[in-house]
Specification:
With about 575 residues, the protein is of the alpha/beta class. It has four domains: about 150 residues, DNA polymerase, domain 1 (Orthogonal Bundle); about 90 residues, 2-Layer Sandwich (Beta Polymerase, domain 2), CATH 3.30.460.10; about 70 residues, DNA polymerase, thumb domain (Beta Polymerase, domain 3); about 240 residues, Alpha-Beta Barrel (TIM Barrel), CATH 3.20.20. Helix content is about 40%, strand content about 15%. The chain has 24 helices and 16 strands. It has a seven-stranded parallel sheet. It has a five-stranded mixed sheet with strand order 2-4-7-6-5, sandwiched between helices. Helix 18 links the parallel strand 11 and strand 12. Helix 1 packs antiparallel against helix 2, helix 8 packs across helix 9 and helix 20 runs parallel beside helix 21. It is globular and about 85 Å long. It binds 2'-deoxyguanosine-5'-triphosphate, calcium ion (2 copies) and zinc ion (ZN).
Length: about 575
């Protein structure tokens, strides 16, 4: 049981009580309790375990006991009983984007909707549109959101499964009968979302390793288990395969199962032209008289085909094979090249950690500088700062920096791009900051041309250092707003505006498919975690992998530069950058 899980139970209790028509004060107490649990300092789980939550604002007596029970036993009887009063399917309704507790309650009370299936039927019959507070538009939105959920149902965000995958790899590596271990598939290629996981081991004892794999703690149920392959479903719902091969087959299996399919098809036809037949078991001469070559590693396969080694992130058949044949593959950026990062939030707006805590974590990560950019005043729902609070924060940053012995904090803002492309702060205010990220946070429903012009206007401002999360997409949740990327990139190049690669697992925005073009036009990338808590700074690792997927080199990434170089960069007029 961790902090998030505890808060989630309280949040769900609030929703169920609301559906039951319970006293609104009681509902509010649970909802507020969830927020407090998320935001409070200290190890809330440990405190709850030791009955030490007394006197904490936002957590009353009843809640305190329940948190204690949750922390100690991992469950809560009150919650289990409450859940029994509803079909399990009501929880599906909470996963629909744009459908809050109030609306769910009306649907439940007025139409008896307690599952997505019933909701869909009600929408299609037009019954939702006529409910007070709904209307045609809302009904359409609900249908779209449900369709999106269906489409995304069986995929997972790359950045959200990293810890899980690394943990499983670690355990497999410890198996005494296993000599080599890898994860292949879309995960290895750093696709922004992954369908299933494809693990691979080299072993002489396939059946044993497959069997042991099915008993890993992350496994929820076993779909199949044989001599060379096991398929399981993990606790998070993810499908996951293990393939066990002989050590001599390992490089071929790794190459094959890494994909992409398109890359493999192109590689196989190249091999054929050279007189080889390539598959997941080996590379063999088409002429049976010749002896197969010795291959120890995946690298050898590419070498034998007359190619530079192609990093997994590039294997999408988007020109990498041709470039490898001409020795023209880029040397890709690496995590250890990063010297700092921009676009991070603190408790001043909607971050969960203080300025000090964020800085401490950045220092812990070995960075030389951290950019702070809390929300601006139009993002009031995210605690956006007005001019006065912003300038006060700049002072705090200057004061804190003096005590850090050389670590740099760059004072910035994530300033809202308003509907017409105006910025949320005047030039006079922006000029007092070290840097500025400009982002769209509302009015997503503009047509492509209007949205593109809106964003370009913001980039034309002298004080805007970089464009934040350019398409506003939330992976597996909300589609990108329509945007003319080619024009955005041209405008960034012309105005010397950096484009962010926002590496929050939800975003990975700008999309990797556009980075090579941006790079070739001389547009710089900043790999930004958009961290709302100290642990989210660690998302930089996945960010680098996605940047590599976009063919980016060290020199294409602004935050590979040292603190003094950044300082000089930010002081220069934009046109000279
Ligand atoms: P995913 O799981 O949907 O995120 O995407 P992948 O790329 O991990 O796809 P998956 O798990 O179906 O298969 C893993 C790799 O195995 C895939 O990237 C390439 C290879 N592969 C699978 N099926 C075929 C096929 O029919 N032909 C070829 N050439 N390769 C295949
Ligand atoms: Ca896969
Ligand atoms: Ca697979
Ligand atoms: Zn933002």
């Amino acid at each position: 049981m961790n902090r998030e899980e505890m808060a989630d139970v309280l949040e769900k209790i609030a929703l169920l009580l609301e559906l039951k028509g319970e006293n609104p004060f009681k509902v509010r107490a649970y909802r507020q309790g969830a927020e407090t649990v998320l935001a409070m300092e200290g190890d809330v789980v440990e405190l709850a375990k030791n009955d030490e939550l007394k006197g904490i604002k936002g957590i009353g007596d009843a809640l305190r006991d329940k948190l204690g029970e949750l922390a100690k036993t991992g469950g809560l009887e009150f919650y289990e009983n409450l859940k029994k009063e509803f079909p399990e399917s009501v929880f599906e309704l909470f996963e629909i984007q744009g459908l809050g507790p109030k609306k769910i309650k009306s649907l439940y009370d007025e139409l008896g909707v307690d599952s997505t299936a019933k909701l869909k039927a009600a929408c299609e019959e037009g019954k939702v549109a006529v409910l007070p507070g709904f209307g045609e538009k809302t009904q359409k939105k609900i249908l779209d959101a449900m369709a999106a959920n269906e489409k995304f149902a069986d995929r997972f965000r790359l950045g959200s499964v990293t810890a899980l995958v690394e943990g499983m790899l670690e355990t497999l590596r410890l198996h005494p009968e296993v000599s080599r271990v890898a994860v292949a598939g879309s995960y290895r290629r750093a696709r922004e979302t992954v369908g299933d996981l494809d693990f691979l081991v080299a072993t002489k004892e396939g059946a044993l390793v497959c069997e042991d794999f099915t008993t890993l703690p992350q496994v929820e149920s076993v779909i199949a288990c044989g001599e060379t392959k096991a398929s399981v479903r993990l606790q998070n719902g993810m499908h996951c395969d293990l393939r066990a091969v002989k050590n001599s087959e390992f490089p071929f299996a790794l190459q094959y199962f890494t994909g992409s399919k398109e890359h493999n098809v192109a590689l196989r036809s190249l091999a054929l032209k050279k007189g080889w037949s390539l598959n997941e078991y080996g590379l063999n001469p088409v002429d049976p008289g010749e002896t197969p070559p010795y291959v120890e590693e995946e690298k050898d396969i590419y070498r034998l085909l007359g190619l530079q080694y192609i990093e997994p992130e590039l294997r999408e058949n988007r020109g990498e094979i041709e470039a490898a044949a001409e020795n023209k593959l880029p040397r890709l950026v690496e995590l250890m090249n990063l010297r700092g990062t921009f676009h991070n939030h603190t408790t001043a707006s909607d971050g969960k950690d203080t300025l000090e805590a964020m800085v401490e974590e950045a220092m812990e990560l070995g960075l030389q500088y951290l950019g702070i950019s809390d929300h601006s005043k139009s993002s009031w729902y995210a605690g956006g700062l007005d001019e006065e609070r912003l300038l006060k924060q700049v002072e705090e940053i200057r004061d804190l920096e003096k005590m850090l012995g050389g670590f740099r904090i760059f004072a910035g803002s994530e300033v809202d791009i308003l509907k017409d492309g105006d910025l949320d702060f005047s030039d006079e205010i922006l000029a007092q900051l070290d840097f500025c990220v400009a982002s769209v946070h509302n009015v997503f429903n503009l047509d492509e041309d209007t949205m593109t012009r809106r964003i370009c206007r913001a980039m034309e401002n002298e004080h805007i250092t970089m464009l934040g999360h350019s398409t506003g997409r939330l992976l597996l949740k909300r589609e990108a707003y329509p945007l003319d990327h080619a024009r955005i990139i041209d405008c960034a190049a012309a105005t010397r505006t950096v484009i962010e690669l926002n590496c929050s697992p939800m975003r990975m925005d700008m999309d990797w498919r556009w980075w090579k073009r941006a790079r070739d036009k001389g547009v710089l990338c900043s790999i930004n975690p958009d961290a709302h808590s100290r642990d989210q700074l660690h998302n930089l690792g996945t960010g680098v992998r996605v940047a590599r997927k976009g063919w980016l080199r060290r020199e294409d990434v602004l935050n590979t530069r040292t603190a003094p170089e950044i300082e000089a960069f930010l002081k220069m007029p934009k046109a000279k950058r």
